[in-house]
Design a protein that fits this description.
Blueprint (H helix, E strand, L loop, with lengths): L2 E5 L3 E6 L6 E8 L6 E5 L7 E3 L5 E3 L5 E3 L5 E2 L3 H10 L4 E5 L12 H10 L1 E7 L2 E4 L3 E5 L2 E6 L4 E6 L13 E5 L5 H4 L6 E3 H9 L12 E3 L17 H15 L5 E8 L3 H12 L5 E4 L15
Parallel strand pairs: 4-9, 11-18, 14-18, 16-17
Antiparallel strand pairs: 1-10, 2-3, 3-9, 4-5, 6-7, 7-8, 11-19, 12-13, 13-18, 14-15
Length: about 300
């Protein structure tokens, strides 16, 4: 039988929020079966709890941020959720002492290390997957995302920027996790921004914690970046977009059996696709597996 997962012991890390610039202490704690992912703001009175859910993603400016009816915020959750998807985490308590997750190095790699230290363990309840049974699509101007039935987990993303670094071969990538590793191919890809964007990002109260240790900064006029050491992959930008999409999709709370494809996707349109999924119950079904061999190969590494 394939069981739900949590962690064995609590683990803590400190860092800075990419957009808020606030120092934050993040603690991951085990949670009971069927509890899902719950965020707790330890810096606020009565320690408000927010359940991770697509309908609570109410701010998608450069990140996915939960905002509840009392305006309590849990910011930039996508990189942490992407790591949860890699490890197949179902139930966890996430405590933080500020309104935003620490950005770490701009990828999900540090969160994978944190989960490794906490030791991921199986629980006693059956794991539930969301299996896509009918195609779903959201289109906004020239952007689109879709979920298609597929016996596994596959992602294809294409991005487009008018800059020399974004060649055709560097701007599109398809990964089938039946034969590719999230750890090797995706987890180290960092968030990025163009030099010309930074002033406007700051004017909007965002990016206050950003620097060259947690984001790639792209020169406006040539095919170079400001970061010492260069890129980790020649197509690191589209790989990071895949990292983001995996995290955005995992906000639904279950692994998805299906094929996600997008063109110029982002947090807002990814969330709209999840909301459409939940509002279209005949397009999916919950499935569980008694036999490990019956689980799609994409999930065998988890």
């Amino acid at each position: 039988m394939i069981y739900q997962r949590t962690i064995k012991t609590a683990v803590t890390v400190t860092g800075v929020g990419l957009h808020s610039g606030f120092r934050v202490k993040l603690t991951l704690k085990p949670a009971k079966e069927n509890q899902g992912i719950t965020f707790v703001r330890t810096d606020l009175e009565n320690f408000p709890h927010i359940k991770c859910h697509p309908f609570l993603v109410n701010d998608t400016r450069l990140s996915s941020t939960l905002v509840d009816d009392n305006r309590v915020r849990i910011g930039t959750i996508e990189h942490l959720l992407s790591a949860f998807a890699c490890f197949g985490i179902d139930n966890l308590i996430v405590e933080l002492s500020a309104p935003e997750m620490p950005i770490m190095d701009g990828s999900s790699n540090s969160f994978l290390y944190l989960l490794d230290q906490a030791e991921v363990v199986d629980q006693s309840a059956k794991k539930k997957y969301i299996k896509i049974t009918q195609p779903l699509e959201v289109i906004e101007n020239d952007k689109w995302v879709r979920l298609i039935p597929y016996d596994g987990y596959k992602i294809k993303l294409s991005i487009q920027f008018d800059h020399p670094l974004f060649t055709i071969e560097n701007s599109s990538l398809e990964i089938d996790f039946a034969n590719k590793s999230y750890v090797d191919e995706i987890s180290r890809a960092r968030t990025f921004a163009f030099m010309y964007e930074i002033e406007n990002i700051h004017k909007n109260g965002l990016g206050r914690g950003g620097n060259l240790s947690n984001a790639i900064v792209i020169n406006d006029d040539d095919d170079s970046i400001l970061n010492t050491g260069g890129l980790r992959f020649k197509d690191e930008f589209v790989r990071h977009k895949i990292l983001d999409a995996i995290g955005d999709l995992y906000i639904v709370g279950n692994p998805i059996i299906g094929f996600f494809e997008g063109y110029k996707s982002g947090h807002a349109i990814n969330n709209k696709l999840l909301r459409k999924l939940l509002n279209t119950p005949d397009s999916w079904e919950y499935v569980s597996f008694d036999d490990e061999d019956a689980v799609p190969k994409s999930f065998h590494h988890i």
